[in-house]
Amino acid sequence: MAPALLIKDVRIFDGENEIPSGSVLVEDGVIKQVSTEPLAAPSISTTVISKPGYTLIPGIIDGHIHAHIDDKNTVLKQSLNFGVTTVCDMHQEAENVAKLREFAQDPDAADFKTSSQSATVLGGWPAAVITAHDKSIETLATIATWPNIKTKADVEAYIQERINDKADYIKLLHEDGNGLSVKPTLMPLELQKALVETAHKNGFLTVAHALSRQATLDILRTGVDGMTHTFCDGPPTKEVIEAYLANNAHCNPTLVAIGSLTTEGQKEQEKYAYDPRVQKLIGNEARQRLCACMAMNNGMSKTKYAYQSVRELKAAGIDIILGSDSAGPALGTAFGVSAHHELATMVNKCGFTPKEALRSGTSLVAKRLRLRDRGRIAEGLRADLVLVEGNPLEDIDNTLNLRGVWKQGILCSTYNSISA
Asked: What Rg do the C-alpha atoms of the chain give, in angstroms?
């Protein structure tokens, strides 16, 4: 374990509230003390960092990514470089889960949470979108191993497999393709409801994919706890807002990914790709993919509907949490980068204050995804911390002014100069 760490003379956003000037003491990877008064170092071996004019925030939690495995551990390392200390994977080959959890043990890698394999059906999402771009023998063989849930017995078997995987939550899929260039097969709603009920019986949180308004309404009525996207094929209605409220469900809107889906977000994607603060932390291939778009729109889907839905859901008291939907094969997103882009989109397009956006990406996403040991700067919680120059509570763009990132009190090596 790293020596004790004292960060002092900094503005603190603790995940809920601002401390204009304070100190945080970390011991054994855990936050030992948070104070508005100066704190003394407990020993001469303590690393002391004093940075007036800087802001300390909880580690960012990206509530929606899709990890892949490579020799460089790109997903988790790049995420941590950008201050994303936890990633929440929302569809993963079960055989990859153990390796990704092993990768997450690296001090220079983000922590990893996962649904493991999503609740799939033959011809459904995400197979429909994957095979639209990749029909290789290898890809088709992988998809053939996915669950094909057709009966309640299949539901029971699927949930037992997720228990065996030690999944962190259950991911449902209900994509009707309205507004998209693909038309996936839908699982019957009675089976979706059985999935939710069986998952809840076994103590799991349930989240669901849908990109259309009607599919969102339908899957919410099965009792899911949250949505992994907002919808983009039409404006919000009272009916869908009431469905969210009936479940006390959250929304993880993935606005940046929707901008890539419709191609309306391309200029903003390019802006982030060529931001000097980003360029030094990503490679050329990742930059090129960030500048491209998924382009899956059939003409109906529009970002204005997504933005409007988030504004109205938030106004109705529904929790909006951060998720980028970053994925290796996808276009228009990049691990870590797109979490910052999403925060800015909440502010610039959906009427959030910077404080509200930061809360969505720290304490609120932790609360809604049941990550009870993180998301706030508070005594007893994990010392997942991000130090930025400037004040992101005034200008959300300052979240990219990264100067230090700690996971469980250990400094990410990219930022070793902070303690020199």
From this structure: 21
The tens digit of pLDDT for each residue in 248-274 reads 999 999 999 999 999 999 999 999 999
**DSSP tag of 297:** B
The DSSP-derived string for 130-164 is: HHHH---HHHHHHHHTS----SHHHHHHHHHHHHH
Strand order across the beta sheet in which 60-66 lies = 111-114, 84-89, 60-66, 326-327
Is residue 341 a contact partner of residue 285, using CB atoms and an 8 Å limit? no
Phi, psi of 132 (to 5 degrees): -65, -25
DSSP bridge pairs for 22: 10
φ/ψ of 333, rounded to 5, equals -135, 165
Q: What is the pTM of this model?
A: 0.98
Residue 75: count of CB within 10 angstroms of its CB: 27
Spatial distance between the Cα atoms of 374 and 385, rounded to a whole number of angstroms: 10
- CB neighbourhood size of 134 (10 A): 12
Instruction: Give which of 417, 420, 403, 419 is closest to 81, Cα–Cα.
Output: 403
pLDDT tens, position by position, 156-171: 999 999 999 999 999 9
* 173 strand-pairing partners: 209
What is the 3-class SS of 259-276, one letter each residue? HHHHCCCHHHHHHHHCCH
Is residue 1 scored above 70 in pLDDT?
A: no
Strands ordered across the beta sheet of 170-173: 170-173, 206-209, 226-227, 250-251
